[in-house]
Amino acid sequence: MEICTQVYRPRRPKDSPLFRLVKEHIDEFLRVYPDRFAKEHGPLRPVVERVLRGFIECGDVAHGFARAWCSSCRTSYLIPYSCRGRNFCPSCEKKRSILWAEWLHEEVLEPVPHRHVVLTMPRLLRGIFRKRRELLLDLSQCSADAIAEYMRREVGADTRPGIVVSIATSGDMLQWHPHSHILATDGAFSDDGTFHPLAAWDGEVLMRLFRERLLARLVEKHAISQELAKKLLAWRHPGFSAHAGEPITPEDTRALEDLAGYVVRSPLSLRRLVYIDGKQAVIYRGLRPNPAFGQNFVAMDPLEWLAHMTDHIPDPGKHRTLFYAHYANRSRGDRSPEEPGDGKVEEEPAKKRRCSATWARLIAKVFHADPLTCRKCGGKLEIVAYLHDQGAIRQILDHLGLSPPEDPKPPPAVPEVV
């Protein structure tokens, strides 16, 4: 894609309500968490503090930056680093979702129609996945197994669909709501690679397949009792649901990438967050009225809101997106192209690993503005240095008058009079 010529105005992270909320309450939140929130939300995980403190440093030149130089007007710009916090920082999550959507479309998805499928469970079961996060992987596997079985019944016993599962844990108002977002082929593949389209999706049948598999897995993992599973299977209104969206053709690249970015999007939207500093209150607006709350917003104190928000930070090394059936990593590796011939295979130069998209291209794609265009003369900027050493960073910021003010020293201790 071509980077547009509009000048990019960098974001100001310290002006966001989320930054002020975290900055003002992080220490108190970490201090009171064991006594106030551990019973409902589980023990405080080390990744939570790491992500919160990294978010405070995100976009702050005092913690490192790249130096860009315009040779036309000889102007220098400082570009701060990002925190890359998973499922918390909206800016970093947006860039990550764009990268993932591009990679998925270019490297994984076959040129066949796809659908967006959502599988949910009743509220009675959701808290189990917060206390035992390892069960989120079982949720993903049961979702994929249900779709694969549905395809075998409807398309053919020897066919396999392409399935990409994204594990989501957040509801519309940031409540704990584990469910599966699935990007599935609108049909299945036979062993010879022939694609067989599916005539129609039956959400009721798919829901029942998903319910049976998930309840059986929870009983197997000793997460629920056999009696509770039988009760849930006998409910007239089971609380499980399956929704399949409209098919998206392979020619609609924009729709496919938008959908791929949607299923891995950040749970938080800054446009819906209101932080009232004086009254120490947080209001988060939903897109529509929620039956569980009876309104389209939730209001809580900052510490409680942080406890709910940090629930959605995944543990290190735990994947949020998984690939199954035709899109499984092993299946994709086995489908390496073979050149027809007399058995002689010519040695080809090793393929270079595809470079990740540059920061500038991502910014241009999101904001339609080029961050490497000089704001003074419109010339092209060039990255000339990356600064990590705190001593060098401090000297440069002092020279430019950009050093943050030092924290005020506490008053001297008053000796106790006996």
Could you explain the architecture of this structure?
The chain is of the alpha+beta class. Helix content is 38%, strand content 19%. The chain contains 13 helices and 13 strands. The chain has helices at residues 17-36, 38-41, 46-57, 90-108, 123-131, 135-154, 203-220, 226-234, 253-263, 302-310, 329-334, 359-367, 390-400; strands at residues 65-70, 75-80, 114-120, 162-170, 176-185, 187-189, 195-197, 241-244, 273-276, 281-290, 295-300, 321-325, 381-387. The chain has a 5-stranded antiparallel β-sheet with strand order 8-3-5-4-12, with helices on both faces. Strands 2-1-13 form a 3-stranded antiparallel β-sheet. The protein has a 3-stranded antiparallel β-sheet with strand order 9-10-11. Helix 1 runs antiparallel to helix 3 and helix 4 (90-108) crosses helix 9. The longest helix is centred in the N-terminal third of the chain and has 20 residues, at 17-36. The chain is globular. Mean pLDDT is 86; it is low at 1-5, 339-346 and 348-357.
Concise summary:
This protein has 418 residues and is α+β, with helices and mostly antiparallel strands.
